[in-house]
Amino acid sequence: MKVRLSDYNPIWKQRFEEECKKLSLILKNEVVKFEHFGSTSVPGMKAKPIVDMIVLVKNIEVVDNFNTQFIDAGYDVAGEWGIPGRRLLRKGGENRTHHIHIYQHDHPEIYRHLALRDYLLNNPKEVKAYSNLKQKLVKSFNETPEYRNAKHDYVVALEQRALEYFKKANKY
Length: 172
Fold this sequence. Notes:
Elements: H1 11-27, E1 31-37, E2 51-57, H2 60-63, H3 67-72, E3 75-79, E4 86-91, E5 98-104, H4 109-121, H5 124-140, H6 144-168
Parallel strand pairs: 2-5
Antiparallel strand pairs: 1-2, 3-4, 4-5
Helix pairs in contact: 4-6, 5-6
């Protein structure tokens, strides 16, 4: 899939909220909370125009019972997709619009995502540096796997800075 890098667009927040309503109709009482994360959740950040969402649920095993409803609603059901205890839904096919990461409310992977989002929201210099890196990489890597691999080490280091930042603040 080709990388589509865009300037921040406030419509991404609206798309997140609309998707929350759609998923609530399917998952009903299983939902604990929705979180918008990733680059589309950070004003000023360059991003692939794909809204990343976390859906926290009471019991991850119950989520598999909704797969037919997810498919009927236009989602691609990808299973754990490399992270045990997660369920990944994708929407939009080749013009992907959403990645929905469903976790049980107490899954440890949640904090890494939210810490990074919150760190970027509080550190405009990091937003600028990360956006600049993305712009540079997309010139050399226009396919998603290569682009993702090229920024991997930077993202891991950025996540570590975020976790340390919030560990000192006793937030995460």
